Amino acid sequence: MKKIIFLLPLITLFSCYNAEHNCKDFKNGKFKFEFEVNGVKKTTFFERKGNIEIETFDGKTDTSTVRWVSDCEYVLQKKHPKNMAEEKAISMKILNTSKDSYTFEFGMVGSEEKQRGKVYKVE
């Protein structure tokens, strides 16, 4: 009985925690994604409007189509791939949101390997 009384507050605390999922707030807008490559901080900017995403990275601009699978999941496909690697679609899943950012998981469609990142809404 003492164990149940001790565990009850912990169970209540964890059951009250729900990650925010206001994914619709991030379907359109201007965004920034920062990441690190070999210890160097990189930034990419992108704008999403409807089913198009325009990304600018290292002075180069590229366009992808966006196909929403659900409110929090979508698939990106380059419109003009320059090589076979760019021909592969990328699965994106928004894990949680805040007022001006979201945490997401991404990877090649069909691959079990996933990475995580955080995107900030700039407009």
UniProtKB/TrEMBL annotation:
This is DNA topoisomerase IV. Residues 1-19 form the signal peptide. Keywords: Signal.
